[in-house]
Specification:
This protein is mainly alpha-helical. Helix content is about 50%, strand content about 0%. InterPro entries: Adenine_glyco (IPR005019), DNA_glycosylase (IPR011257), Tag (IPR004597).
Length: about 190
């Protein structure tokens, strides 16, 4: 069974690739989780974040947006001592900030889903890459998402992170044309 080459580094990567990556996500909690995990990855490998994913879920109350938005300084201090997550003060504080901003977006747009999917006009962009070298780090859509989110005050939402987020949540299908997952789940 042929996969995208990046997924062949570990069994954890394979399972993530085979079951999640590129599958359209429309649940606000799941979209928030992936936003935080993609931001946490900045400067690290995705495998590192996957290994810490369960620790993140436990540490951040399963990414319940309202709960995370209410975290105070004492909870943040506790998180910064937790070896199950990336203990970066900017990233932890950014998670709380982003949760508060997701609540604002939900009030304005009805859901975080409606907000983030607007950048791809509500349906997945299906690319036709033959090699990983063909895949861009950013696109006009990720540039637009990044700019809009930064304007609202979101943290760790540069265009490269936004593009990885779009790939992870199925807004963009960047499976290689030779991958068995190519074309699967598109349009959900």
């Amino acid at each position: 069974m042929e996969r995208c080459s990046w997924a062949n580094t570990s069994s954890l990567d394979q399972v993530y690739h085979d079951e999640e990556w590129g599958v359209p996500v429309h649940d606000d909690r799941e979209l928030f989780e992936m936003l935080i995990l993609e931001g946490a990855q900045a400067g690290l490998s995705w495998t590192t974040i996957l290994k810490k994913r369960e620790g993140y879920r436990e540490a951040f109350d399963n990414f319940d947006i309202e709960t995370v938005a209410a975290y105070d300084e004492s909870k943040i201090a506790e998180l910064l001592l937790n070896p199950a997550i990336v203990r970066n003060k900017l990233k932890v504080n950014g998670t709380v900030t982003n949760a508060k901003l997701v609540l604002d977006v939900q009030k304005e747009f009805g859901s975080f889903d409606a907000y983030v999917w607007q950048f791809v006009s509500g349906k997945p962009i299906v690319n036709h890459w033959e090699t990983m070298a063909d895949v861009p780090a950013t696109t006009p859509e990720s540039d637009a998402m990044s700019k809009a989110m930064k304007k609202r005050g979101f943290k760790f939402v540069g265009s490269t992170i936004c593009y990885a987020y779009m790939q992870a949540t199925g807004m963009v299908n960047d499976h290689m044309t030779s991958c068995f997952r190519y074309g699967v789940d598109v349009g959900k």
